[in-house]
């Protein structure tokens, strides 16, 4: 009875909406049915606990969660929102920006892993470790998404355990419970910032700006990870809001607290931090543990950091392949990239992302540290555009609700700050993008390669946008009118909600009858 009621509701709703309005490329032969699902889409096998542990790896935007719960991605990348709420040209440019950035993040994490391995000075060439890491990362992404999610769940659990252990250990060290019995207290806060490039307060400001720019790397793309993975959960309209409500607590526990404790055990002017320490030897956690004269534990921490970098590479390979899969679905990339196996894995997209990961072999000719700098510069500038465009998409999404007379209370999740946080993101990340690589403008820090990698993303994005506009979008408006923005997925959510409510009432009635 329950399943039939859901079917009746869905059929009734399909008569009203028939199909989603076409907002993607006209060349695509794939239409959006009322269910919002795409033919042969990637598998929806991620469970809520997988999603929560993936969310634990980083911050995700609550404004994106509001859109993702109302208009689930269902196998698409988050470039779907600029395409839907801005224009196809913006979606095209952001889609390739996403794929490129995620693809670059894979060799980045492999390079980080190589640096960590250097801590033990193994008598083996870097190419051996690069090959092993590359094969394992790409190979795992050919498996069903459920298996990949289970692997990430296990590694995230291990990292959470490490963070909890480090925080407890930090308290012990600060209180004088280390091998030396020395009580540190807040002594390391006496010199909170070490000047950079210039001396004095100006150098301290430059150091702060350098750190501010660098946080874009860990935060810039992970914010969208839950939305992408949410499209592969069974019920994103319910799962995403639950994950979003735990956002503040996860942010405080997994980011703020570890950073707070590391400032207690690691001095800002530690030589290993400021003199280009080798690999994981420059990790503040490792420095703090070695300063406290605790043996063996630094090796354990490094091993977990190695696993962390490896699992991050695995996740970014997943996101890269899904971004290319989305581009193919939308008609922006060759159709064979949308082909999936019986597990729902887009194997050609995984292959292409794996080929991009071959950039990790640059470490064979150049130092890993230099390659890491280039990759960081490229990724940083590439991560700015998604934040700006997604925030702009959210603002237009909200305006479309008002113009089309849609009650926002219908949404499965509503971001508290809403438009204010969206405008702040646009301003903040625009400034961050301009500051990326700012140090090269000082005579003592000038480096042509650093300058190019720091700002190459800007002309590339502009070229992608205007290239698509010229060849494919000349007959289309620069922005889709607000009254034409497609909000039909909300009708589907309402239909499913009604079906769930009816099912719940019937189940309650059955229980009472049987009782």
UniProtKB/TrEMBL annotation:
UniProt xrefs under InterPro entries: AA-permease/SLC12A_dom (IPR004841), APC_YAT (IPR050524)
Top-level taxon of origin: Eukaryota
Gene Ontology MF terms: amino acid transmembrane transporter activity
Cellular component terms (Gene Ontology): membrane
Membrane topology: Multi-pass membrane protein
Residues spanning the membrane: 98-121, 127-145, 157-176, 196-222, 243-265, 300-319, 345-362, 374-395, 422-442, 448-466
Subcellular location: Membrane
Keywords noted in UniProt: Membrane, Transmembrane, Transmembrane helix
Amino acid permease/ SLC12A domain span: 60-478
Protein name: Amino acid permease/ SLC12A domain-containing protein
């Amino acid at each position: 009875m329950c399943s039939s009621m859901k079917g009746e509701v869905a059929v009734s709703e399909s008569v009203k909406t028939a199909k989603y309005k076409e907002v993607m490329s006209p060349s695509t032969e794939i239409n959006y049915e009322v269910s919002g699902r795409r033919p042969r889409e990637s598998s929806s096998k991620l469970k809520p606990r997988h999603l929560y542990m993936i969310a634990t790896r980083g911050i995700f935007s609550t404004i994106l969660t509001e859109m993702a719960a109302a208009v689930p991605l269902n196998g698409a990348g988050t470039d779907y929102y600029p395409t839907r709420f801005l224009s196809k040209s913006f979606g095209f440019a952001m889609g390739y920006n996403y794929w490129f950035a995620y693809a670059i993040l894979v060799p980045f994490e492999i390079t980080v892993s190589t640096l960590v391995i250097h801590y033990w000075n193994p008598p083996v060439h870097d190419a051996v470790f690069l090959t092993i890491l590359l094969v394992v990362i790409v190979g795992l992404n050919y498996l069903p998404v459920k298996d990949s999610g289970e692997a990430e769940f296990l590694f995230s659990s291990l990292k959470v355990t490490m963070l909890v252990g480090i925080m407890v250990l930090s308290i012990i060290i600060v209180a004088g419970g280390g091998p030396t019995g020395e009580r540190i207290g807040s002594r390391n806060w006496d010199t909170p910032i070490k000047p950079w490039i210039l001396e004095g307060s100006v150098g301290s400001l430059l150091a702060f700006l350098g750190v501010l720019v660098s946080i874009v790397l860990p935060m810039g793309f992970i914010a969208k990870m839950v939305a992408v993975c949410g499209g592969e959960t069974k019920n994103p309209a319910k799962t995403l809001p639950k994950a979003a409500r735990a956002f503040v607590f996860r942010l405080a526990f997994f980011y703020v607290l570890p950073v707070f404790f590391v400032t207690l055990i690691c001095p800002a002017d530690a030589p290993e931090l400021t003199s280009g320490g080798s690999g994981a030897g420059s990790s503040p956690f490792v420095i703090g543990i070695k300063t406290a004269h605790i043996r063996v534990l630094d090796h354990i921490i490094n091993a977990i950091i190695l696993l962390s970098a490896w699992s991050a590479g695995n996740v970014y390979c997943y996101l890269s392949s899904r971004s290319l899969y989305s581009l193919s679905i939308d008609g922006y990339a060759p159709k064979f990239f949308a082909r999936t196996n019986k597990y729902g894995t887009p194997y050609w997209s995984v292959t292409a992302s794996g080929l991009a990961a071959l950039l990790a072999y640059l470490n064979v000719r150049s130092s890993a540290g230099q390659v890491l700098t280039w990759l960081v510069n490229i990724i940083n500038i590439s991560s700015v555009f998604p934040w700006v465009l997604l925030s702009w998409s959210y603002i237009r999404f909200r305006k479309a609700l008002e113009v089309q007379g849609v009650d926002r209370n219908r949404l499965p999740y509503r971001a508290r700050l809403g438009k204010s946080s969206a405008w702040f993101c646009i301003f903040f990340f625009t400034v961050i993008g301009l500051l990326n690589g700012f140090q090269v403008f000082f005579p003592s820090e000038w480096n042509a390669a650093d300058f190019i990698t720091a700002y190459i993303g800007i002309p590339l994005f502009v070229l992608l946008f205007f290239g698509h506009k010229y060849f494919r979008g000349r007959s289309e408006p620069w922005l889709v009118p607000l009254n034409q923005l497609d909000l039909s997925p909300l009708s589907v959510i309402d239909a499913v909600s009604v079906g769930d409510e009816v099912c719940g009432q019937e189940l309650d009635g059955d229980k009472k009858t049987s009782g």
